[in-house]
Automatic annotation (TrEMBL):
GO MF term set: DNA-binding transcription factor activity; sequence-specific DNA binding
Natural source organism: Tsuneonella aeria
Signal peptide as annotated in the record: none
Pfam family, one: HTH_18
Protein's name according to its UniProt entry: Helix-turn-helix domain-containing protein
InterPro entries membership: HTH_AraC
Residue ranges of every copy of the HTH araC/xylS-type domain listed in the record: 184-284
Gene3D superfamilies referenced in this protein's UniProt entry, alphabetically: Homeodomain-like
């Protein structure tokens, strides 16, 4: 018999974790941060698995926005971003914004706790430019003092690692995110544009924001990690893949973003961001990712943070 898993669900009223459709040997929580943290944090999430009862040993992660992650499991977990080499995830880690799908080898399973950051939150958290962190994972102590990071990890380890996590993070994060960044208004406007359907060219984005292309490119790299063109392509691809995954087989291609002018256009983006053709990616079993998309959509209203209008 496997060990007891954390309690699946959410503090959001009315959420039924049975609707997450979790695979055997796994559990999951998604939480909304305290209201004052909403400009900086998209969600909290807690993932747990027991390999004695689980049917998979790796988890697929779509290209994503930055996140803090705590490895509470008593053993190492490895992450491979795109076609890069596997790296051991630090016990307290900061994920930069990514432009490739990743594979996380969970070993014997165990609890991981995540904090999905907004671009505004990252600007408050660290002065390190986002393009220096893109497609990378670094120790959280690279951007925060080591002692409070250790204290937070210790408190999370000593907790039930499930329902109590939200309150712990709601208390711990405000002091780290208290100082507003002078560029927040522009950062937020760009974030809203990236999440909104219908913006598909850099010139269209510039016109909407009232910025010239040089300024938009500089701000996008500094606070979002990539050029505006790549960010718009990533959003378009994610919107399409998430819609297809939530709908499930037979994967009706009429669900893809209307800005794709043909299937080859969609395939080109899928190969760039997912490393393979879209149907090949969709046919690969990803039961835990699928459950996470369903769970986040139920709790947050949006299945993937990169698509969430802040």
């Amino acid at each position: 018999m496997g060990r007891a898993l954390i309690e699946s669900g959410s503090h959001v009223h009315g959420v039924d974790p049975a609707l997450f459709g979790l695979p055997p040997g796994t559990s999951m929580r998604f939480e909304l941060p305290a209201g004052a943290l909403a400009p900086c944090v998209s969600d909290y999430h807690v993932f747990d698995s027991d390999q004695a009862a689980c049917t998979f040993s790796t988890e697929t992660i779509l290209p994503r926005v930055p996140a803090i992650r705590f490895i509470i499991a008593p053993h190492a977990m490895n992450l491979t971003i795109g076609d890069g080499t596997a790296q051991t995830i630090p016990p307290a880690a900061l994920y930069g914004s990514t432009s490739h799908a990743a594979e996380m080898a969970v070993g014997r399973g165990g609890v991981t706790i995540g904090v999905t950051m907004t671009a505004v939150g990252m600007a408050r958290l660290t002065a390190i430019p986002a393009d220096s962190l893109r497609d990378r994972v670094v120790p959280l102590s690279a951007v925060l003092p080591a002692e409070p990071v250790r204290d937070l990890v210790d408190e999370l380890r000593a907790s039930d690692q499930g329902p109590s996590v939200k309150a712990i993070l709601d208390r711990a994060l405000p002091p780290l995110l208290a100082q507003p960044h002078p560029m927040e208004a522009d950062i937020q406007r760009i974030a809203n544009l990236l999440a909104a359907p219908g913006r598909h060219t850099v010139q269209d984005a510039c016109d909407h924001l009232g910025m010239n292309q040089r300024r938009l490119e500089r701000l996008a790299k500094r606070f979002f990690g990539f050029t505006p063109k790549l960010l718009l392509r990533r959003t378009r691809l994610l919107r399409s893949i998430v819609a297809l995954k939530l709908a499930g087989p037979p994967f009706d291609l009429s669900l893809i973003d209307s800005n794709y002018h043909d299937h080859s256009h969609f395939t080109k983006d899928a190969k760039r961001f997912l490393g393979k053709a879209p149907m090949r990616f969709l046919r690969k079993p990803t039961p835990y990712l699928d459950a996470a998309l369903r769970a986040r959509a139920i709790v947050q209203g949006t299945a993937w943070a990169a698509l969430q209008h802040q």
